[in-house]
Design brief:
The complex is a heterodimer of chains A (335) and B (376). Chain A has 335 residues and is an all-alpha fold. Chain A has one domain (24-37, 46-334): Orthogonal Bundle (ABC transporter involved in vitamin B12 uptake, BtuC), CATH 1.10.3470. Chain A contains 13 helices and two strands, in the order H-H-H-H-H-H-E-E-H-H-H-H-H-H-H. Chain A has helices at residues 8-17, 24-43, 50-75, 83-101, 105-130, 134-153, 181-199, 201-211, 213-218, 223-248, 261-271, 283-302, 309-334, and strands at 175-176, 179-180. In chain A, helix 3 crosses helix 11, helix 4 packs parallel to helix 6 (134-153) and helix 5 (105-130) packs antiparallel against helix 10. The radius of gyration of chain A is 20 Å and the shape is globular. Residues 1-7 of chain A have low confidence and may be disordered. By secondary structure, chain B is mostly helical. Chain B is built from 15 helices and two strands. Chain B has helices at 13-51, 61-66, 71-86, 96-113, 118-142, 147-165, 174-179, 201-219, 221-231, 233-238, 243-269, 284-293, 305-325, 328-359, 370-373; strands at 185-186, 198-199. In chain B, strands 1-2 form a two-stranded antiparallel ribbon. In chain B, helix 3 (71-86) packs antiparallel against helix 11, helix 3 packs antiparallel against helix 13 (305-325) and helix 4 packs across helix 11. Classes of the chains: A mainly alpha (335), B mainly alpha (376). Chains A and B meet through helix 5, helix 6, helix 9, helix 10 and helix 11 of A and helix 6, helix 12, helix 14 and helix 15 of B.
Amino acid sequence: MTVTDARAPEEVSLRRILPPVVTGQEVVLLAVLAVLWVLLGIFTPAFLTAGSIGPLLVQVAPIALIGVGMTFVIITAGIDVSVAGMIMVCAVVTARTLVGADVPAVVAVALAVALGAVLGSVNGLLIAYGRVHPIIITFGTANVFTWLGLRVFDSSTVNNIPGTLSFLGRGAAGSTLGVPHSFALTLVAVAVAWWFLRYTRAGRNLYAIGGNQNAARLAGIKVQPRLVSVYLVTGALAGLAACMIIATGTSTLDQSVGAGKELQVIAAVVIGGTSILGGRGSVVGTLLGALLVQTVVSGVTQLGWPTQLGFLFVGVFILVAVGTDLIRERARRRA
Amino acid sequence: MTATTNPAGERGPQTRSRRPAWLTPGLLRDRTVLLLVLVVVLVVVVTVLDAMGLTSGRFTTDYLAAALIGYVPLALLALAELFVITSGRGGIDLSVGSMVSLTGVVFGMLFQQQGLPLVVSIVLAVAFGALLGAVNGVITAYFGFPALITTLATYYAYRSIALVISDQKPISGPEISEFYGAAKSVELPLIGHLVPLVPLGVFTFLLPVAVLAWFVLNRTTYGRKLYAIGTNDTAALWSGIETRRTRMLAYVTAGAVSGLVGVYTVAQFASARPDAGTSGSGMALPAITIAVLGGVAITGGIGRLSGILLSALLIVWLNASILLVVPGNEGAQAQLLALGVVLLGASLLSNATIRRRQAGGSGRREVPGSVSGTAT
């Protein structure tokens, strides 16, 4: 960002409104990640090799990608617990299309994204115009989406999925110079979202809505269209993430696809320092949060501990991350 | 949404102060009546379908009574959510399913592996559940964490502990197999030949808890305090209520009830499964759904036991009926659709009713997330 002297006053006022470029939470997360990676590197030498980091990034990609949308949603003081259902519907429809029609990859991805956007806009429309608390609406639609997904599965698995989407997968076709395409795509999404939230009117409106919806409305912000858009984006990103999940899986898709992802995404977002009460948050934090969660889960496995123990640490990290954020917030208020 | 914590912008004060007096009790009655009507409609419709020969099995009172075996855990966990959600400030408990798994495993260890007497094991399991709930309560009420965060964290933590200490294997054995008797259907004494066989769990688990919960919520100062902190935390604090202790006790109650459900699932499955409350999408999401369907306001301060018991009954019988009308796997899937549609329909409908009464046709637009503003 270049600042000319003439624009300085405006810049000062903007700086007061905008969140800092890098939040304290992000610095802490980066430090924790660095410490964890070094420790894991010491105790399990295999950890810091391309053969280990690559798959880790591939697994982080869908969580962080949906996390971008979820960060928007939570900044507006909403929440979306129907993510798992949306992933399931998009994944099974896309997989069936790939098996049945052998469409090119572009068409498959476009289909998944469009379908996700439709499902997300159902959430958004019900929440914005039905004026019911987002958690209730998305609990309801989660059930409906899961039903839809299971109907398309038709009580069996989808077999012999062709490798059309392998450019998003974990194999050699899925990365360039050691960087997985899916993770690179996620980085692009994070960068665009960071710019959007910070430097566009629509993005800053989301913070205003989350801070105080009535005040935002009285200030002339079109609250309802904005709300529809954040749930629509979350749905579309869930569709894209579903493509990544198909690509990283085997050639068989079973009915457990997506299960539990909603809580993983929310965990990544809150560890990243986004306030569940709305009005505050960043997508960079979400990316770091997703990386932290996956590092802990993978690290525990590589240390030879029971895999399930990893989730105990995920729980502890959620509490520690939000706790430090709460303490800083209180100090800020006192200052 | 409570009018007291959410002043409505440019609306006149006169309309605002009138709202809680007549609207809130009226709505509650509406929800109970609505659920009762839905239950009756459901039974009548399926009976007619049965008479026309469109069902795969007979829709009898025996069938409905047998379905109650799934009613016990669902109603108990929804009751746990009633306490927590009513306590306000964004109160919610995502960890009930994990607490069910963990206390179930602990109960299995005490009862089967340590050989403790049944009653002692049950008491210890419930106390352990209360302890787990106290962790949620202390973090939420005393440290000021948002409940969604606290219970998301403990959801992961408790689930993980349950799987690790049990080595991911269910605990079973002769004692636990015998304990299965606690959940199976029995003939009632005296009037038993007149009514169908009812699962024993309804009387040994659900009934005592429901009576106790009704008494606590409606006839004790604790109940009054709970509704007070849920309606307006600040006002409650200034009226001398220990809001933090009151709120913490709601989470302790949810933990203890989850512990009891943990014991019940051991009886129901005849083994202590480490994933009893967390397999698939888990038990927490259906429990919250039932609570909301039963008229519990997600913003706190409003909620009744009768609504919970009726909405759980509606869902359990609806699920049982669907299995008769839509056979096989499709029926199991259609249950999801039914739950989603009923929840969406009920919440949108009741919200539309509130708005019509509030606005009186003035067309004022109230935006949805304003409810979450009260949670701060």
